[in-house]
Specification:
It is built from twelve helices and twelve strands. By secondary structure, the protein is of the alpha/beta class. The chain folds into two domains: 207 residues, Isopropylmalate Dehydrogenase, CATH 3.40.718.10; 141 residues, Isopropylmalate Dehydrogenase. A ten-stranded mixed sheet has the order 2-1-3-12-11-4-5-10-8-9, sandwiched between helices. The protein has a two-stranded antiparallel sheet with strand order 6-7. The longest helix has 20 residues. It starts with a strand and ends with a helix. It binds nicotinamide-adenine-dinucleotide (NAD), 3-isopropylmalic acid and manganese (II) ion (MN). Nicotinamide-adenine-dinucleotide binds next to helix 1 and helix 4. Manganese (II) ion (MN) binds next to helix 9.
Amino acid sequence: MTHRIASIPGDGIGVDVTISARTVLDTAAEKYGFSLAWTEFDWSCERYTKTGAMMPDDGVAQLSGFDGILLGAVGFPGVADHISLWGLLIPLRRAFRQYVNLRPVRLLPGTSSVLAGRKADELEMVIVRENSEGEYSAIGGRHNTGQPDEFVVQEAVFTRVGVERIIRYAFELARTRERHVTSATKSNGLIHSMPYWDEIFAEVAAQYPDVRAEQCHVDALAARMVQAPDRIDVVVASNLFGDILSDLAAAITGGLGMAPSGNINPSGEFPSMFEAVHGSAPDIAGQGIANPVAQILAGAMLLDHLGETVAAQAIRASVDEVLTTGATLTPDLGGTATTTALAAAVAASLR
Ligand code: NAD
Ligand code: IPM
Ligand code: MN
């Protein structure tokens, strides 16, 4: 079996961690009897600087035939973030109807949480982030430019279809786990969007009497994530809330270098896209010291998506083993190893 995979390393450490993740994925493929046919795309801020575009006009069409996409990270100083991200990552998520952004985290063995007294595997949760609408919207604009009364408007969009399908996805997922969904809301401050979100949450929850449904204002949920993370199983959140909560979830379980994510098109009509939660980290780019674990685990999510679940599980087990041994850790984990050395240790453990 051959899976055709598009690789978009992107910018900064996205390039290093993607090369490393590919090594691990290829090792898993060899061991478990399938192959990955990679096609690499140089779409990035560097490309923007040379050509004026992050990707070609027919970029979406070029990717649409692939079985999956592995993306590094997008964004680098010199190109404004709203240009680079709305020129590549966000249009891909939308064109491919990847309306679920799945962000599982667990406290990996051998790493100690910043939350004192927590042990490995005691912290485990998944954030189901709405990935196609919400606060991320291009509707709005700048008005009275240059005048004393200059202002901007940034609209949020919450559709019934969009809200309902993400909440339903969270409940279905909860049925495979601890049967507990927490909805991140802010219906005390936002007068239209979040009361609507809550209303639909209650409607969907009523159809899942076997799942405990709870809503929590996102500010209080952020505190709970730190103080009582064991009271969280599945979080369902709007685009922006889910974005913020997922960096927090990463931080309490080992750091940004450890958290994977999947932009999922549940119907399978279009390819899904896998990436780390973290960005291109310009502050450490080019030093070869980025932690590749998040991207390796994103690669494992890609394999799960392709149906290669045994290989995916083996990668997670190898990551656990390398982290537990502790001999090959990158600086963010307190070690001195390079990106490639950590990935090579995972690949060696796989073999
Ligand atoms: P970031 O996640 O890139 O970095 C935040 C901090 O975490 C930095 O100190 C960085 O060094 C550290 N860090 C992140 N990943 C790490 C890893 N694997 N190993 C070790 N340390 C790691 O967030 P930022 O600084 O806000 O954003 C930098 C750029 O990345 C911006 O252009 C932003 O728009 C972009 N970004 C892209 C994506 C994406 O493509 N999916 C996601 C987030 C941010
Ligand atoms: C993420 C990132 C992106 C997001 C940015 C870079 C647009 O932070 O994937 O978490 O907010 O979706
Ligand atoms: Mn983010």
